[in-house]
Design a protein that fits this description.
By secondary structure, the protein is mostly beta strands. It is built from three helices and 28 strands. The protein is 11% helix and 37% strand. It comes from Amnibacterium flavum.
């Protein structure tokens, strides 16, 4: 009797052109007689796997073994692709047993074997029923420490339980620290213990520990946890301007995939900005940073270093800053202090009105009023003299 190391067998059927297999039943006592084969065939499947509830999906990395039913010799071993398909080549006429082995599933759950007969065609095995092993209980992850660049975080993993809530010691537990920004993230290289020093690539992201526990008879069980707060970094002194002048700016922006936003896209008014007014530019920031340096080109001038708050960099452009930048067409360049991420905004600043001294508008208006009043009085006196 063939004996797999982990999983039960199943007797099922696989159709071949010119012959059919029947479902169920016990093993035949001996393989049917076959003539010496003149050809060899493929035994294969493109259907993948399905759960007992019916939804079908692919499952890669499952070990598939083909045994000779009569001799119980191992004929071949392969592994399913990410799409769940597999195949054996150079299979001669005869009866065979397929065995599927995985850490996650039984193949299938009813203790029968999958029998395949090869006669004069290449049999295709239809989809195989799989039943997941149960996961372990427990294993809660708790992380202590401040999620700040350079700080140390420490994790603890709670006890595990198995069937009937009994205490279970996993055969192995693997730890991995990583970070996530929702749609993006990664593991932290070399961080496979219960503590980690917060790295710069995790700034602006959630950081946490994943624990993968394995126990014979259970599916690998993944638990995880981490601080609720995003990883932050202290403000650094502003870095030098990324390029010396505007002649190299286009190439720098292109190399950093930084499309230039219009002024309206960041909440500035359309057209030129008045040097006498104050404006606020709000740039959505998706790179992992706590602070961003902002420069103005054509000739680079540091506008300032600004915090990232709720995913937004808010830059206040005061009359003093606008005067420092100067009139004309300019580009604001944003560079993240931790990620090095880059964004840019085009803006136009109008020239300030010239000022030549004290404001004489009020005296001129006052003089005009007195002049008119004097004229009225003069006319009134002449009329009075004429009547006299």
């Amino acid at each position: 009797m063939i004996s797999p190391t982990r999983t039960p067998f199943r007797r099922a059927s696989a159709l071949a052109v010119g012959g059919a297999l029947a479902l169920g039943g016990a093993f035949v006592a001996a393989a049917p007689a076959h003539a010496v084969p003149n050809e060899t065939y493929y035994v294969y499947s493109t259907a993948g796997f399905a759960t007992a509830d019916g939804p079908r999906y692919s499952d890669g990395g499952v070990e598939v073994k083909l045994y000779d039913l009569d001799t119980e010799d191992l004929v071949g071993t392969t592994t399913t692709s990410p799409y769940g398909d597999w195949s054996f080549s150079d299979v001669v006429d005869g009866d065979y047993v397929l065995v599927f082995t995985s850490k996650d599933y039984w193949y299938p759950a009813d203790d029968e074997e999958l029998l395949v007969t090869v006669e004069d065609a290449e049999p295709e095995v239809e989809e195989v029923l799989l039943t997941p092993y149960p996961e372990l209980g427990g294993g809660a992850v708790t992380v202590t420490g401040n999620p700040v660049l350079g700080e140390t975080l420490t994790a603890t993993v709670g006890a595990y339980t198995g069937a009937n809530n009994a205490s279970v010691t996993p055969d192995s537990v693997e730890y991995s620290w990583g970070y996530s920004r929702g749609e993006s993230g990664d593991s932290i290289e070399g961080a496979t213990g219960l503590s980690v020093v917060v790295p710069e690539e995790a700034v602006g992201a959630h950081i946490g520990l994943s624990a993968i526990a394995e126990k014979d008879g259970y599916s690998p069980t993944i638990t995880g946890g981490g601080p609720e707060a995003l990883v932050s970094a202290p403000q650094k002194p502003a870095a030098p301007a990324p390029v010396a002048d505007s002649s190299g700016l286009a190439a720098f922006l292109a190399a950093n995939y930084a499309a230039e936003f219009s002024s309206e896209a960041v909440g500035l008014p359309k057209g030129s900005l008045s040097s006498d007014s104050t404006y606020t530019a709000k740039m959505d920031w998706y790179s992992g940073d706590s602070f961003v340096d902002v420069y103005a080109y054509s000739s680079p001038r540091l506008v300032g270093t600004f915090p990232v708050v709720d995913g937004v960099v808010q830059v206040t452009l005061t009359p003093a800053i606008l005067a420092m930048i100067g009139s004309g067409s300019h580009t604001l360049v944003y560079v993240g202090q931790s990620s090095g991420g880059v964004q840019s905004v085009a803006l136009e600043i109008s020239a300030a009105l010239a000022s030549t001294g004290a404001d004489i508008t009020a005296p001129l208006i006052g003089g005009s009023v007195l002049l008119v009043l004097g004229g009225v009085l003069l006319v009134a006196r002449r009329r009075k003299a004429t009547k006299a």
